[in-house]
Amino acid sequence: MKRPRTVLVTGGAGGIGRGVAAAFAAAGDTVVIADLDAQRTKETARSLGIHHRTLDITDADAVSRELDVVHAEFGPVEVLVNNAGLLTVHGTLLELPGTDLDAILRTNVVGTFLMTQQVARRMVDAGLYGSVVNISSIGGRQPTPGMGGYESSKAAVDALTRWAAIELAEHRIRVNAVAPGPVLTEMMAVGLPEGSPQRQAWEDRIPLRKFATVHDVAAAAVFLAGDTAAHITGTSLAVDGGQLLS
User: Fold this and answer.
1) How confident is the model over 206-220, as pLDDT tens digits?
2) Which alpha helices (H) appear in 96-213, and where do they start and end?
3) What's the superkingdom here (predicted)?
4) Which residues make Cβ contacts (< 8 Å) with residue 193, sequence separation at least 6?
5) Which residue in 21, 127, 135, 147 is deepest, having the highest Cβ count within 10 Å?
6) Is 150 a catalytic residue?
7) What is the pTM of this model?
8) pLDDT band at residue 178, thresholds of 50, 70 and 90?
């Protein structure tokens, strides 16, 4: 029987993060979700039977404090899933305010860096052969007009994944990313309802002709963090129905 690990999922209150947390919990791990929205995080944790913390991943001091709390209550983090990110701020190159790009990069890149750095330091100090899984996007490799700020941040997350993987390999800590295409979250289902021209336009770009489900992304994260992926590090696994082929 697999020994339970302590798994920390940022941005775990909803969407992909919630699905990832549920998948690790179903696998028998001790799961802690961390998110900015205290009430929603608490409600999600209660509904899934897992644990929760309120956290701003861009605040280095807060990250350190919360990791200390998690360690004291559940032991060292053995799997970190960096899912928290800013997705809803978009604009064209000619129109996007610099302050908006700064906010995107601050959350999606700097926040992911701070979480990875501080968790990895603790893994090294404890002698743990841990795993980090970053939630990226195929947008880092395939541009969509109007989404360049977000996509640039995800290209940076892929680079950060490789950076961390090569430097942490000597400590037997693996770092990978899951790069979804469009994912059918509740927010996506509302914004792009089935049968709408906008939804059809997106699906026409995907060779498998459908969006990924949250379960598709969660399964990839669980795989990359598990023993069956023990010789995989530094990769960004596309979960996109073949969209990068088109």
Assistant:
1) 999 999 999 999 999
2) 98-105, 112-126, 148-168, 186-191, 197-204
3) Bacteria
4) 199
5) 21
6) yes
7) 0.96
8) very high
